[in-house]
Amino acid sequence: MSTENPGGGQPVGQLSPDGRWRWDGHNWVPAQQVPAGGQNPYPQGGQQPYGAQPQQQAYGQQYGQPQFQQQYGGGMPPGVVQPKKGLPTWAKVLITLLLLFVGLIVLLTVVGLAAGENYADYSCEDVAEEALSIDADKTEPLALKDVTDLEIAEDNREDFSAPASGRGVVLSCEGTGDWAELGEAPVLVVLEAGDDGEEWVRYEMTD
Predict the structure, then answer these.
(1) What's the whole-number average pLDDT of the chain?
(2) Can you tell which superkingdom this protein's organism belongs to (predicted)?
């Protein structure tokens, strides 16, 4: 019977080529892992058995060396940039709503008085109806679909005179707006007249 051991004459402590197994003189056993704190797995004199290769840790470092997490403080190997985080979803939604709101306050429509009609004949309901025509064919989340509970906010119908330049408020009314996807929120509808003789209607979401 052969007396040659299965290790093929390997010295005690010899590691396998991949560093995962160690010859204990009788069998190949899993290589001893480095204890927490980087202590030497062969404490006698601080030496490894003859022929053993330096024990390897994560990222190919030898035992006793600090982890990259400790050395660099970020858990990333040298030269690797920590990925930047994007904006949270709520911030993206808020930015979108703010951009849409900025667009709302410049939505205007030109209106004209019928023959024999004057500003005194206009009511809040008339101004709201003109404002709704702005979004009649739109499907945006903040498209205005209805206005209720109207009350006068500013009334210059009886004594309005056009400004020397730009536009002046003839009638403005506050109410409850029904927005396409936002639901109900306060709205201000405004009838204005300019120095060029044209009338304008606009609306804006209010607090």
Answers:
(1) 69
(2) Bacteria
pLDDT tens-place string over residues 101-110: 544 444 445 5
What percent of the chain is modeled with pLDDT above 90? 18
98 vs 162 pLDDT, higher one: 162
CA-CA distance, 6 to 26, in Å (whole number)? 8
Where along the chain do its domains lie?
1-82, 89-205
Q: Is the pTM of this model over 0.85?
A: no
Number of C-beta neighbours around residue 15 at 10 A: 21
Over residues 51-65, the mean pLDDT reads 45
Angle at 56 between CA 53 and CA 62, to 5 degrees: 90
pLDDT score of 197: 78
SS (H, E, C) the chain: CCCCCCCCCCCCCCECCCCCEEECCCCEEECCCCCCCCCCCCCHHHCCCCCCCCCECHHHCECCCCCHHHHHCCCCCCCCCCCCCCCCHHHHHHHHHHHHHHHHCCCEEEECCCCCCCHHHCCHHHHHHHHHHHCCCCCCCCCEEEEEEEEEEEECCCCCCCCCCCEEEEEEEEEEEEECCCEEEEEEEEEEEECCCCEEEEEEECC
